Amino acid sequence: MPTAALILAASIAVGGHPAHRTVDVHKGKKPDLLSIIIDKSVDPGVDFFSYSNGLWIKAYPIPPSESSWGIGNAVITELRSKLLTVNQHASKNAKPGSDDQKVHDFWTTGNDEAKAERLGITPLRPLFDRIDAISTVQDAVDVSFWIQNQGVSSLFSFYVGQDEKSSDVMAVHVQQGGLGLPERDFYFNSEAGVAKIRAEYLKHLEILLKLAGDSDETATAKATSIMNFETSLAKASRKLEDLRDPIANYHKMTPDDVTSKLTPSIDWQKHLSDWHLNPSAVVVGQPEFFSSLEALLKGTSIDLLKSYFRVRTLAAYSPYLNKSAVDEDFRFNHTVLSGQKTLKPRWKRVIDSEGEAIGFILGRIFVRDYFPPASKKRYADIVEAFRQAYGRRIDKLDWMSPATKAKAHLKLSILHKKVGYPDKWKDYSKLEIGTESYCQNMINASKWAFEDMLSKFGKPVDRNEWDMTPQTYNAYYNPSNNEIVLPAASFAVPGLLDSEVDEAFAYGYAGASTIGHEMTHGFDDEGRQYDGKGNLSEWWTKDDAKKFQNRAAVMIKQFNSYQPLPGLHINGKASLGENIADYGGILLGIDAFKRTASYKSGKKIGGLTPIQRFFLGYAISWMTEERPEVLRRQLLSDVHAPAKWRVLGPLSNIPEFYKAFHIKPGQPMWRPENQRVRIW
Ligand SMILES: [Zn+2]
User: Which terminus has fewer CB within 10 Å in the chain: N or C?
Assistant: First the structure.
């Protein structure tokens, strides 16, 4: 590996030292990141992922305290050290209730390990007391609603959000839920690694029960019963791919009908009105799940239900308790499920949980200090370049009728963009953050978030809201708002200032992999079912919808054939929307980039042509290596394909890519013309 590569890579692979400065101070030019990490020993036509990112991945193996390592982690590492400064500067004498006081108290209390040890699990006492008082099924149902407020999800999922068929209205949604493992398939998949996870989960349940006060014998017997109970919930749950059909998962019913037809044991009207909700209808995701839940509630002993709630409560809060609770959370969630070897230092864990609790307070400071107006303008302009590119691509499609094209244009033209950070910041004034305990602060934050969600019911939809903080290394498309939401951190390249990222790099990295990706979500297998106003409606002609599905089926087949772990293939159906979005993002990126000055100039940087840099910019956005445990979990529970295949899959369908890297017929990255995906 060239020395220059080591210098730059070191700057982006920053380790655990809080005071580390991530931008290397070198007078003169920094080495070109895209070219120095290429592994020339790999043929790009054989494995473009390893070619484009290979040297970095070889030089920086996954650290013991991580379950995966790559560009996202490097961005997060930089972010953490920025947020550390913010925390360290929060004033001790801040006005009670102010943002500064919240940051200060959250930070100091979170880092007070001795206090957490002294308190043990007592911060959960009020929750356990309420659970212990259960004596009837009715009490158990009451508790399942009550602990939702406290940030503990059990039995089913609940949220207030936009009505899929009427996006101007907030609706009450109830869905399948209540599982302790990440997804339904974990309870049934026969692959050896998954079977091992089930055995470890049983042990996990047993340890949690003991931590909650059960004797060894009781804990062993109860753990098995809880596992059986959850397996029944899982059996009643729909598969990951079946949750992606928005129409099949939408059943509007009156609360009284949900009670009488599905769950006579749950008086929805009463429980919702306890939350000051009086909806005329509830959107039930999976009615058959609730029928099974009813049977299960009737057939389960009160004692077991109590143990189940205790376990769910402890599982939700153990990362913020004493050492034995933290250790067990680490053992199961981070070691068994993620392959991590050592626990992250406490200060990192505290900053991460602070992001969950009061993320927009930190976000406001973060963008003020680190996201200049020039960057906001740059990416807003790239969004517009991509929008125009999409319009031109729609015009050129030979399979879509003029009627559907006209409506696609309309949807595209009113697609809303949110870039960097919200115009209006969240008001945390009612949230209490104090010095009582780390766990109490997390409970308070959950309660506040729940109340905040409930308060939206019955009010006009606030379309200015953000569901991600500006410092999140991610982005999303919300079909109900027909909007793409692009947090400031999603544009970040570790070790580089935004002004140091050249146009080709930016068009591939932030452009294709994020902006174009999110934009295409509006037209993927799921997003395309929503119109421009964010309502589920059939705006495609029947014939066009059929043609779309036939073309998408090629993508499903391609991804089903990838096997990242022996015996576990990618779920082509469950990951279809993401794979279409990746593929579309690259196509829009190519079209938009071809209109830029740097493409037209043909000027090489680091020995690479502009179009090569564009594709490398895309590939580096997925520069990540994952432990097998993470791969397994992802293959079973995530609608995103693992990072490597998000490079291999979409690019193998794109002729411009073949041309840029001289990919030859017969090579793995090349597909015969009749086997390529052709949608957008
Ligand atoms: Zn996506």
Answer: N
Residues 3-18 as b/e (b if ≥16 CB within 10 A, e otherwise) read eebeebbebbbbeeee
- In this structure, how many other beta carbons lie within 10 angstroms of the beta carbon of residue 463? 16
Ligand 1 centre from 170 Cα, in Å? 24
Task: Tell me where in the chain the CATH 1.10.1380.10 domain(s) lie.
Answer: 124-320
Is 579 in contact with 649 (CB distance < 8 Å)? yes
Q: In angstroms, what is the span from residue 544 Cα to ligand 1's centroid?
A: 23
Q: How far is the CA of 2 from the centre of ligand 1 (A)?
A: 35
459-476 pLDDT, tens digit per residue, is 999 999 999 999 999 999
pLDDT at position 148 over 80: yes
Helix (H, G, I), strand (E, B) or coil at 582: helix
Half-sphere exposure of 579 (CA within 13 A, CB side): 33
Average pLDDT, the chain: 94
Determine the distance separating the centroid of ligand 1 and the alpha carbon of 632, expressed in angstroms: 19
Judged on CB neighbours under 10 Å (0-12, 13-18, 19+), 135 is exposed
* Residue 297 in this model has a pLDDT that exceeds 80: yes
Centroid of ligand 1 to alpha carbon of 182 (angstroms)? 19
Any idea which architecture 124-320 has in CATH? Orthogonal Bundle (1.10)
Statement: the pTM of the whole predicted model exceeds 0.85: yes
Which tokens in the block code for residue 323? 């050492």
Q: How far is ligand 1, taken at its centre, from the CA of residue 222, in Å? A: 39
Q: What's the 498 CA to ligand 1 centre distance in angstroms? A: 23
Q: Which pLDDT band holds residue 28 (cuts at 50, 70, 90)?
A: low
Cα–ligand 1 centroid distance for 581 (angstroms): 6
Distance 518 CA to ligand 1 centre (A): 6
Per-residue burial over 502-540, b if 16 or more Cβ lie within 10 Å, else e, is bbbbbbbbbbbbbbbbbbbbbbbbbbbbbbbebbbeebb
Q: Are 163 and 601 in contact (CB under 8 A)?
A: no
- The owner of tokens 């009105």 is 273
Q: How far is the CA of 395 from the centre of ligand 1 (A)?
A: 24
Could you tell me the distance, in angstroms and rounded to a whole number, from the CA of residue 578 to the centre of ligand 1?
5
Give the whole-angstrom CA distance, residue 467 versus residue 459.
18
The answer to whether 180 and 315 have CB atoms below 8 angstroms apart is: yes
- Give 575 Cα–ligand 1 centroid separation in angstroms: 9
Q: 71-89 vs 99-111: helix axis angle to the nearest 10? A: 110
What is the band of 20 on the pLDDT scale with cuts at 50, 70, 90?
A: very low
DSSP result, 524-562 = STTGGGB-TTS-B---S-HHHHHHHHHHHHHHHHHHHT-
Other Cβ atoms within 10 Å of 75 Cβ, number: 21
CA of 678 to the centre of ligand 1 (A): 19
Q: How far is the CA of 476 from the centre of ligand 1 (A)?
A: 6
**15: CA distance to ligand 1 center in Å?**
28
